[in-house]
Every structure is written in C-alpha cells, then in structure tokens.
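User: I'm preparing a small set of examples for a lab meeting where we compare how different chains pack in three dimensions. I only have the primary sequence for this one, and I'd like the structure in token form so I can line it up with the others. Please keep the answer compact; I'll paste it straight into my notes.
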Amino acid sequence: MRARILVASVGAPALAAVLLACPEWAAALLMCAVSALSARELVYAAGLGGETFALWPVLSAALTSLGVFFFAGDTAFTAVLLALCAVASVRAAMLYGTDWHKSAGQIFCAVFAGAVMPRLLSDITRLRMLENGGIYALLPFVSAFTTDAGAYFAGVLFGKHPAFPRVSPNKTLEGCAGGMAAGVAGVAAYSAIVRSVADVHIPLWAVLLIGVLGAVMAQLGDLAFSFIKREYNIKDFGGVLPGHGGILDRFDSMVFVAPTVCLIVFAARESASGI
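Assistant: Understood. Below is the structure token output for the 275-residue chain.
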C-alpha cells in the first residue's frame, strides 16, 4: 500500500503537469509511450513475447498514437490495422500445426493491442489538442481515478456481496456503487474547480454524462482487463509501477473512459451550449 500511495503521489502531479503545462507534442509523446508499453504488456501476457512478432503490435501502437497527433488518426488506424491483420494472418498460418502454434485468441489479442487499444487511448491526445485542451485531457483521468479510488475504499469498508467472483473475486456490489458515487462526485468537483479557476464552463448535462458513463466505463474497462489476466493466469500485466503493476494495470480503465469522455466533450462543443 505504501508503494502504491508513493507512486500515485508522484505520478499524478507529473501527469497533470504534462497535460496542463507542457506543449501538445509532449502530451502526444506521453500517450505514444503509454500505448506502446501497454501493447507490449498485453502481447506478453498473451504469450507472444518470445518472438519477433511481438514487435509489430508495439510499433503499430506507437504509429497509431502518433497518427492522431498529426491529424491522421483514422488513416493511421486503418493502415496499421490492415498491416497487423496481414502480418498476424501470415504468421498464424506459418506456425499452425507446429510447436509454436498460436491460438486465434492470441492473434486477436495482438491486433487489439497494436491498433484498437492505442486508437482509443489516443482520444486523450485529441482532447489535449482542443482549446483549453489540458483541462479536457485531464477529465478521463479524474473520472477513472476517482472511480477506482471510490470502488476500492467502498469495497474495503463495506464490501460483502461479490459482483464478479469468477473473474475478480475482490470486486463487490458495494464497491461498484462506491465507485459510481465517487466518479460522479469527482467529475462534478473538477468541473466546479475549472469553472472558478480557469473560467472553463462545462454544461451540466455533459458533467452528469461524463460522471455517470465515465464511472460505468471505468469499471467495465477494469473488469475487461481483469478477465484477460484471469484468462492468461497472471496477477499483473507488469511491474514497472510498484504497488500498481504494469502500465496497463493503471491505464486499463482509460481504454474505455477516454473515448467516452471524448465523445461527450465533442458533442458538447458542437451543441448550442458549447464549451
């Protein structure tokens, strides 16, 4: 627990500094690194780390993420997805029936790690590139991290009824409810702070949607990657963050939260109320 708190106390301010105070390219490089490292952790978890094929998803994740920064996100995603599917299909066919045979699940995992996951994470870069982008880019983190904290403490203090015992035995219905409450409260508090400090107004309907849907998607994202860990019989995706595990252990919920927040923010900007 001490290591977990120490890493969070150092990492959270550093993350906020990059998103708020550094140039857009710094935030883009940060998400490029997160995407590439997350892809590496996922393909290693799937048992693909012992061969050169693991390099393809990592490289593809970085290219997908950078493509968003250079306003070519859809093009980069399509190109990378096609290349990954082609490489994965050929590699799978070459290894089929040998001692190095790869399952369909492993191949799909590699494609997801190298293209889909970084494209979803890169919505943080899209938010950062808006006017007052640092404020919007922090929204997914506020939503995910407050939900995670609320679920943890509510589960420890009040948890009695397991929510998904076969996938994540420590998750409880009480913890899920606490995560929902904390996620909504965290986004509402953040909205009030940026309104008073930076004069950035986020419509009430957008705050409520981000609070509710963000909390739901944060817990679904965590559950989805818990299932992957259970499937491959691992505790954590890595050990680079003491007390937290790997990069993907910390950013798993962000894969679901970032695009959710991005959709709502862009919808609000295009609406009559605007932000």
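A couple of notes for your slides: The chain has a mean pLDDT of 90. The beta strands are 162-164, 168-172.

User: Perfect, thanks.
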